[in-house]
Design brief:
five-stranded antiparallel β-sheet, Immunoglobulin-like, alpha+beta, five-stranded mixed β-sheet, 32% helix, 228 residues
Length: 228
Amino acid sequence: MTRGPGTRRTAYFLLACMVFLAGCGEGGSDRDKWWAHNPIDKTVSYPIDKKLRQLDWGTVAFNEPPSMNYGETRTIQLLLSARKSAAELEGELRAVGEPQSVSIQIAPVMEAKLSASGGAFTITPITPEEQGVSAMSNTEWKWSVRANELGQHKLNLSLIAKLTVDKANVARSVKTFDHDIYVSIATPASAFNYAADHWAITTGIGSAVIAVVTWLLRRRRPGIDTST
């Protein structure tokens, strides 16, 4: 049986592919060779994994102000307890706003952060952001928040567990809570504060209005030349 040119070309092509693949298998990268001889053992537990599994559970409660006046300053309060229920902790909030609570993992040292993008709010910490957590009493964080822009804006409240791995003193931060607070800044009571903060714009608009009113009054008076 004779083989045509097409059959020979196919055979040559398959042979070349086999040689190429064999070469790849023998060569390969050093990384591939390492993983081939060191497969991942999923039963291995690193010190940080042990720390994460050992984190206790606690409760946090905080206030959500649904609205603020422009220029108004409010306090955001966050309470953390390793023993109290959500209802108990919410009842101890003193800052104005809707009480909220949730269960989270906690560590002996926690860092709480309140942040916002842009310049919608001026946020000033009242208490240290990083604190040691008590197993017996509440741990409290507070921030002073001033509303700077009209409209609806977002605050972000988060808690971070600060871990140290064994005696190596290797730090690791783990975010255990992340929550957005939406605040509407638009009320009639804020008009005066807004005008005071934007006095240049307000003065310009006021001057323009006075000039237009004066021009209209002059036009209505007989005998007054308004062509100038």
